Structure formats: structure tokens, C-alpha cells
């Protein structure tokens, strides 16, 4: 099996999420950036190895066909917008995702700056979010985030494509969403009601028993089981973000890695459409999804040796021009004498 990118790390203190769109004619510039990201990460990370700098790059469905020939990930499709009875999960433009994380925001920033310079005008930034660790891995609502993540080999198995798609074994599917939280509404309800929204206690992070947990709680709608009743895992690497004062958005950047996109898709259907229909996630009454995208993070070897570019993405060689006419000019302006 090919080697995946460095997705599973310890929970770092900082992250930058860059969502990029490829400009017309920018395919070759993007390919150049994809090939250089590994070397840039190594170079910047060597300044402070203890900060555990990592960068994961993932590619959207439409961009894949603009960048590469040959096979494509079997389950890679664009993000599907979901319009529920009350809330919507929007689909927003996205070609490339760069997830940078480290214990030092300075390293994240420097790598993002260098990579942006390499991409140059080949891309435009759709979204740039700077995340941070908030106390003991809590989001800004005060609840611990990522409690249900698997660990160790279970985590690796949960995110790694295997023999079902041998051309892309070692890769991972990625879903991202940015949520903006209404803290005035959230802070207006009691801690007990907040716990019912999540389905676990706020202070000590204990999940409620099934006979007590509300059916529309966040946890109740995010547990997906296979035909045998076994829970199917994904790995979330969410980060809180936001401005301190009221002039800017604040909330959670959601990012989930998985072996296949169907688990994340079912979770989102449960949240926005409801399970059963209409029984939507109560948390959405307080936090609004403002972006949504889906990507594939290919194995490291794929990025080291990219497939050929499609013919349309290769800049044509310029046609040779006519031979210059000897007219006594040095071709600096018009120095030819009038007749």
C-alpha cells in the first residue's frame, strides 16, 4: 500500500486551512505547487522540529480532471448541497485544500506564505481560516470537540483507502465546512439545555445514556453503524477560529478524514435533513454552515510524481514568428529614417 500523507498527528495548537480555486490557465502553476509542498514543509519544519509541522493537500473533483490524466479516486465527487426543513449545508467553490498544522502558528504562517508564493496567480483564495487550540480541546461553545475520534491503528484504518481502490490506496477522503456560531443565542440558554443539544455533559465530557440523550442531539445524529451494528469511524481535526470582538465571525472549522465519503455524507444528511426526516441536529439552531467542500488527499508518492497533465492544461509552444526584416533599426522604438 502507498504511504498516506501525515494526517494523523497529535492535537496541535494551531492550524491554517486554505481553500483555493484554480484560475483559468493556472493548472501548470498548481501542479508546480503540489510537487513542491513536501519540500517546503520539510524546510520550514526543520526550523523547529519539536513543533510537529505537517501539511496535507487535497484536491476537489472538478480540479482533478483539470490537473491529471489517468484514473481518478473512485468515490471522489463534488460536495452535495443539503437543504433541510430549517437549515442548509451549502456547497461552495473549492479546488484545492491545504491543511497546515503545528504547535507554532509562526511555522504554519511561513509555510502558507511560501506555498502561496509558489502558486502565485494560478489560484485565488476562496477561504483562509486560522484555527487555535482552546483550553483542553474545546470548541468555543465550551464543549470538548473530537471526543469520538478513534486512536492508533483504528484511526489509520478509518481514514486509509485500501484494496477497494488500488490505484489510490493510502489516500483519504476529506470533507470541510466552516460554521459560524451565534453566541448570543447559545449563551442565552442554560448549561443543562446546552448539554441536551450536544448529548453529553459540558464540564466533564461524559456522554449521556441512550435512554436520556435527546434524539435530536448532536451525538445521537452523528453515530453511523454498519449492517452488523458496529460504529463506523472517521477522524475529525476541527479547530475553533474567530475574532475577539463582534465585528468578525467566530465558530468552528470542521474537517473530517475518512476511508470513503459515504460516512461523512450520511452524518450530514442526518444533521441537516434529519433522522427520521425532520429530526435535525439541534446544534444547527445555534451554528450556521457557511461553506462546504469535498476533496481527496492522495498518497505521498502521488504528489512526488504527478500523473501527466491533460492536453488542455499544457501551455502550447509559441508559433515561430516571421524572420525580422533588416531595416537598419536596433529595435529600440522606431529608429528607421523616413524615406
From TrEMBL:
InterPro entries: Dimeric_a/b-barrel (IPR011008), Dyp_perox_C (IPR048328), Dyp_perox_N (IPR048327), Dyp_peroxidase (IPR006314). Keywords: Iron, Metal-binding, Oxidoreductase, Peroxidase. Its cofactor is heme b. The keyword Oxidoreductase applies. GO terms for molecular function: peroxidase activity. The keyword Oxidoreductase applies. Residues 6-133 form the Dyp-type peroxidase N-terminal domain. Residues 306-339 are annotated as: Disordered. Residues 138-301 form the Dyp-type peroxidase C-terminal domain. It comes from the Bacteria. Residues 306-316 have a biased composition (Low complexity). Pfam families: Dyp_perox_C, Dyp_perox_N. Belongs to the DyP-type peroxidase family. NCBIfam families: Dyp_perox_fam. This is Dyp-type peroxidase. It comes from Gordonia caeni.
